[in-house]
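Hello forum,

I keep getting stuck at the same step: I have a sequence, I want structure tokens, and every attempt I make locally crashes halfway through. Rather than fight my setup again tonight, could one of you with a working pipeline run this one for me? It's a single chain of 186 residues.
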Amino acid sequence: MLRPTFPIETERLLLRPCEPRDLDVMADIRSRPDVVRYLYWDVQSREEVAGALANRMTMTALEKQGDGMALAVELKDTGAMIGDVVLQWLSEEHRQGETGFVFHPDYHGKGYAFEAAREMLRLGFDDLGLHRIIGRCDARNTASARLLERLGMRREAHFRENEWFKGEWGDELIYAMLDREWTERR
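Reply #2:
Ran it on my machine without issues. Output:
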């Protein structure tokens, strides 16, 4: 079980539960075609984002298999919410998890996603005791693939046309890291 004390502090960021005040930023992020192009959902209306936010506000702990934790990522120095990260508990028996991230394009290329995603890996491995964490992305999403590689995750699979995705067959990349690889990287 994982019930972190919030906010979780990294060098430049605070990771905290999502709050109603995040609606404007989350709506801006999720309404952008350039952001959702490779994500598993399409552009969302403000009402759809409000529903997603309400759901994310309940995702603050991993108590059992199937639970997800979704955290807002906030800049320490300004308090600006710049994106969100998730950790999903896929299997208790096999100690498996999945991580993901979405950030506003204004904050790309500054290392914030790396810093936040690395903290989610730490939570999964060190605090929850997972054996393996995966990350998935559309094969055309080279920025996300590079980030997963920078985190030390290795590409395990390239599924060709495995999903009907936004009107066409899409390829998916699967990256993974084992707990011993995490320990070696630290």
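The CA atoms of residues 62 and 83 lie 20 Å apart. If your local run keeps crashing, start a new thread with the error log.
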